[in-house]
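Review form for a predicted model. The reviewer records the input and the model, then writes brief findings.
Reviewer: anonymous (R2)
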Amino acid sequence: MLFLLLCLLSLWFLLPWLRGPQAAPDRGGRNLTVLLWSWPFNKPLSLEGDVCWDMSGIPGCRLLSQRSLFSTADVVVFHSNELEKQRRALPFDLPRPQGQRWAWMSLEAPAATPDLRRYSNVFNMTVSYRRDADVTIPYGQLQPRETAAPTDAVPANKTFPVCWVVSNYQTRHRRSKVFQELKAVIPVQVYGRWSRKPLSAGALLPTISRCYFYLAFENAISKDYITEKLWRNAYLGGAVPVVLGPPLKDYQAVAPPRSFIHVDNFTSTRELALHLRQLAADQRRYREYFSWRRDWEVKLFTDWRPRLCAICSQFSRLPQHRVYASLHDW
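Model under review:
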């Protein structure tokens, strides 16, 4: 009897070895440790306390930035911008715990992203503004209002037909060409460093609120790349956005109907300009572009901490053994 008991105990202790190395258990979004390898743009934030619970209502999500705790992390997040500046920043020299996942994080369009071909077969997870990322972290989104807003929530101090805030003006950009053609038909008030009319943070939205339309023109044409130019400048500024960026379907996926005007819906810039002039002169039709505000409100994402917390909220549904063979092609 004693011999049989000893055999059973030996088998019990040997069983993990016989099964071979095991992946980290699926924690279902609980008790996860997320290590940020480098703060984006070298701007650290406090991680004291239960950050994810306090900021996002996500339990059991521990955020760290101390590299010395690498071995305790379930997920290690690498911000793309810092990878470019520190080409040897990936900790290949450290023993990587079994089941630890490495996440590539970026809010930049591909044109502003470093060459990713060197990172083939390195990352297990993508954290990006793209809707097909493993963890999607948009610049902004619409969420239902707790109580309906007044239906006449249209700023009444409109004095300019069209406004645009731009600092990075380059003639090769499509948006620059559209702007030049547009201002030949309808006045466009330009602000920002390029026009030598910079706006302070406090003056930005009040200035835009005086415009009927705002040019929410992205500096890159890329899938799902919809930035604060729409969410903050146009929507929060109280102007109807004229958008130029990804295809119409990408905007339709995140914004209500009749809340924006897409440049590609017109056969020419002149046709677009004439349409804007007609809308500004017809208050009933113009106000229809604000009807969505009755039931929806804008939520901006400007803090990196809730973005990191989102990893925990989506972790349980992600494939456990995924490796991106070509992050560049993704």
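Findings: Residues 1-29 have pLDDT under 50 and may be disordered.
Further findings: The domain at 142-300 is CATH 3.40.50.11660 (Rossmann fold).
Recommendation: see findings above.
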